[in-house]
Structure formats: structure tokens, C-alpha cells
Amino acid sequence: MKLWTRFKTAHGRIGFGLLQGEHILEHRGDLYDQPIATGATIARDAVDLLCPCEPSKIVALWNNFHALGAKLGKAAPSHPLFLIKPATSLNGPDTVIRRPPSYAGKIVFEGELGVVIGKRASHVSEEAARDYILGYTLVNDVTAAEIIEQDGNFAQWTRAKGFDTFGCLGPVIAQDFDWREAEVVTRLDGTERQRYPLADMIFNPWQLVARLSQDMTLMPGDVIAVGTSIGVGSMKEGALVEVSIDGLGTLANRMGG
């Protein structure tokens, strides 16, 4: 399994490469089009890892797990239910989630799998969809929960989920990852709060790419956050949230003020 990551050196240079244990094998060119190894090897602890991709948009799913739908009394949708998190919400691993100055209410974590698009996808069939996936990453779909129903005339999903730093991604993009046997585990200050199987998805990654590409063009680097299941909860200032999937590592972010 290949693990791609982006990094920033102490001198501010940004690069990308394959994470191999405690080292990164640097590459050049286009991550989405046959990147070439430079031959340089960089120590993992000598750089800061960044979001492994730079999406033009994060497409975030709602009600995409049977267990959560059953708990909420929601029927399985006939088409993916989604919102868009703007690119300005992007936040990398080991960084701070900032509370919006305009909002004093509850902020919640949602540990999820992210599907990273590898090439321009428009009106893709389900049979071809997996060829449009570069790989998979971890997502914390942070939400200002009390904003969603603040206005009874219009549910504020995008506003609640679109604040700066609310789109946590990383630390790697895993190629050749088999999600079908994997579980998402989310810990809050070291205590397990979520553990759920990805096989419980209503729409799996290939179906999501196919269905969503009928609605909008998906661009290289775009991320589909496949939705979450039971166990989401609020984060207090200073709390550490860690989202993990075996093979993808851990996405850790701390809640700031």
C-alpha cells in the first residue's frame, strides 16, 4: 500500500512524497499524473505534514450509514445526501481547530473516511468509478451543531460545517486500500467515542463517485467525506480528537479557543 503525503520543511518549502516508516521518499511533478521520485529521502520528524491534497471542495455526506439512520429514524436515501465544505475550511494533521468568533455553542467531531479523487470525473459509471479514485484519507468533519437548525426556514448545513479549520484531512492518501474490512475509530482525549465498520455504508465509495459525478464535476484532489456513524460528540477547548483507520494512520487535531 502506497501512502502519499505533503510536507513543509523548516525553511517553508512544500513538497510531497511516499511515507515509508520514519522517512519520506520525495517526488516531483504531479501527484495525480505519474509523479517521479527525486531520489531524496527526508526524515519524517524533520518536517510538518500538511493536508495530503488540496481539494477545490469537500463533498460531505449525511445519513450514509445504516446504524446511524436507524438510530435517528431516517430511511435510507435513494440518492446521496450531501453538502459542500469550502476549500477555505481545509485543516491539516496536528493543527488546531479554531472556534469561530461569532459562535459560542457546541462544536462536534465526526470521524470519517475520505475518498480522494484522482482525475476529472463527470458522469462516471459505477463500474468505472474506482479508476477515478486516487486513494483514501481520514476526515474530521467538524460541525457547529447549533447553527444547523438555527433558522427554521432553512437548515444551515454548509454554514455549520464550513468555518475555517473545520475540514480536517490527513495525514496520508492511501492507495490500494481495501475499505471493506476496515473500521473508523475516533478518540476524544484518549477515550474511544466511535468505532464503526465502513461496510455499513449505504452508498460505498464507488457508488458515491458515480452518483455525485452526475451532479457535479469532481476534480483531482477533491475529497468525498463518506459520512459518519454513531458516537459523534462535542469538543471542549483543549480537547484532542484522534481519528484512526488501520492502514491510514491517525488524524489528530486539538480544539482551540
From TrEMBL:
Pfam families: FAA_hydrolase, Rv2993c-like_N
InterPro entries documented for this protein: Fumarylacetoacetase-like_C, Fumarylacetoacetase_C_sf, Rv2993c-like_N
Ion transport is among the record's keywords: no
UniProt-listed Gene3D superfamilies: Fumarylacetoacetase-like, C-terminal domain
Key words, A-Z: Isomerase, Metal-binding
MF-aspect GO terms: acetylpyruvate hydrolase activity; isomerase activity; metal ion binding
Keyword Transport annotated: no
Signal peptide bounds: none
Domain Rv2993c-like N-terminal: 4-52
Domain Fumarylacetoacetase-like C-terminal residue range list: 57-254
Transmembrane segments: none
Coiled coil segments of this chain: none
PANTHER family membership: ACYLPYRUVASE, ACYLPYRUVASE FAHD1, MITOCHONDRIAL
Protein name per its UniProtKB record: 2-hydroxyhepta-2,4-diene-1,7-dioate isomerase
